[in-house]
Amino acid sequence: MNAAPKPAASPHVMNTYGRLPIAMSHGRGCRLWDTNGKEYLDALGGIAVNTLGHAHPKLVPALQDQVAKLIHSSNYYHVPDQEKLAQLLVERSGLTNVFFCSTGLEANEAALKLARKYGHDKGIERPEIVVYDKAFHGRSIATLSATGNPKVQAGFGPLVDGFIRVPLNDIDSLKKATAGNPNIVAVFFETIQGEGGVNPMRAQYLKDVRALCDANDWLLMIDEVQCGMGRTGKWFAHQWAGIVPDVMPLAKGLGSGVPIGAVVAGPKAANIFQPGNHGTTFGGNPLAMRAGVETIRIMEEEGLLENAARVGEHLRTVLEKDLIGRAGVKEIRGQGLMIGIELTKPCGVLTQRAADAGLLLSVTADSVIRMVPPLIMTTAEADEVAAILLPLIHAFLAE
Ligand SMILES: *Cc1c(COP(=O)(O)O)cnc(C)c1O
């Protein structure tokens, strides 16, 4: 069907990903072109990373300017844009202090260290952290131990201990699992699970957990690596429930594609780390900080939170109109531009079929079609996504 050459599996790069036989060449807005010149509509956004799409006309010159001035200097010295970006994050989250790193797992690793030291500072020798079924927190030994997916953990034991696992949205289970345990220091979850299949925590549950954490002096730690940075229509997804966490790891969308991570902390956790407790070579470097500052500035200039809410709602409505009640479609979940369509059978083949049809998306948790496009997506582009995707789903379900 396609005579163009496909990139072969590499003899030298480790075989860690089940990649599609496509290599991207360049992008513009919500469009990408591969090395054969084929065009794609991007509903994946580099897995919730490309907040501003590709080659954004305001971001490109800012990053070019920064690269020509200074990419990296090291945390031996002050980095003025760290203070600037920290202030932007603090103002938008209601928290107080930020530690910068380079990836999501690193932000979560810092959160786990904060929680353990929070315990040790209170005299708790063996601190325990509550985590969730189907959670995804990263691929380091500690974060894969916190992750609730046996496939991520298989082959890497012994796992890090000190985790207690509970189901989502069940306050009684949480209370039962922690009752009378003096070693609990924190509760840790994603507001909307990403890799686990786009599973939202309910607003009432978030409020109940906040109250339980307050009553017991535990840290409430919310992994907003995927669902945060405006994707749901608020800066952070937990803000829909009107709560404020104590610790919030961020990454993915924060730098519009430049690697960056951050852990944002409120008063209970802001002063736990002292000089020598934690650090990283790349974290907070001038290029990443400039990307973060410019991303937030451009998002506000262009009203991208409102856009994410509006276009997400539109896309979801179009999908629901067609799919709800259809045999083979279990549920449509998510908020804003984070949408999951759960089918009743594994549908991994749809990533390749969608790409063949010119649409980029992913399938997670085996049977959930996930879309996390750039927040600049227009209503017309959302209609185009639906126009490509719906016939593919119908054909797949008819097989
Ligand atoms: C992607 C993701 C991570 C891991 O981020 P990396 O940058 O890949 O280390 C952690 N938590 C959540 C919720 C994620 O979606």
TrEMBL record:
The gene is argD. It catalyses: N(2)-acetyl-L-ornithine + 2-oxoglutarate = N-acetyl-L-glutamate 5-semialdehyde + L-glutamate. It is found in: Cytoplasm. Keywords: Amino-acid biosynthesis, Aminotransferase, Arginine biosynthesis, Cytoplasm, Pyridoxal phosphate, Transferase. One of its GO terms (molecular function) is N2-acetyl-L-ornithine:2-oxoglutarate 5-aminotransferase activity. InterPro entries: AcOrn/SuccOrn_fam, Aminotrans_3, Aminotrans_3_PPA_site, Class-III_PLP-dep_AT, PyrdxlP-dep_Trfase, PyrdxlP-dep_Trfase_major, PyrdxlP-dep_Trfase_small. Its EC number is 2.6.1.11. This is Acetylornithine aminotransferase. Binds 1 pyridoxal phosphate per subunit.
